[in-house]
Amino acid sequence: MDNTFRIAPSILSANFAKLGQEIEDVIKSGTDIVHFDVMDNHYVPNLTIGPLVCDAIRDLSHNVGALIDVHLMVKPVDRIIPDFAKAGADIITFHPEASEHIDRSLALIRDHGCKSGLVFNPATPLSYLDYVMDKVDMILLMSVNPGFGGQKFIPATLDKLKQARARIDAYTEKTGRQIWLEVDGGVNANNIAEIAKAGADTFVAGSAIFGSPKDTDPNRYDSVVASMRAALAAV
Ligand code: DX5
Ligand code: ZN
Fold first, then answer.
1. What local confidence, expressed as pLDDT, does residue 1 receive?
2. Fold type of domain 6-233
3. Residue 216, pLDDT score
């Protein structure tokens, strides 16, 4: 992971009939992380993929050098965390509203050998971080309400990113430990630079990447990823 800025394609918008090929092609186009959205039709009104699919894509993702970033939009979280760790997840994040014991759930993720993270919905306050900074490796700010790809970026996220960045920088100054700051929802080549300037270092993008024509050219994602990289290079 040499890139200062990491791009994490959300496979929610990929062609599931060809999921393995989609992942190989999108990572080879210059992205870093497979963002894996898990929804349960309970915590969010949609139903997606589970540990079985994570296990199916683990080797090919790791073979092309990508981490698997499991974004849990399920409630409760503790029962399913070990299953994803066993299925090859590198990072597991969850929403504080979905756990009765946030500190315990974060520890559970690490106990199973994964990086841990908390996810903040647009209206969820960052104060959930007050007593758990030592237990998080990633902070994920939702820039849409969770549940669906293809929604519009909520501009108030920019100010929240600045606040999260300030918390992380103060913490890193004190401890020397890095925490990644990820943003998820409505990110595209036109707004990614502004989002980076607000403090994000890891960018989830679903529809903006996979929305390109679904042909079979293995380089079909090169141009959209290159335009995101160019925007980031100018920050
Ligand atoms: C939404 C998911 C996102 C989603 C992003 O609940 O967490 O990861 O796939 O999709 P886009 O980039 O299309 O907003
Ligand atoms: Zn997500």
1. 36
2. TIM Barrel (3.20.20)
3. 84
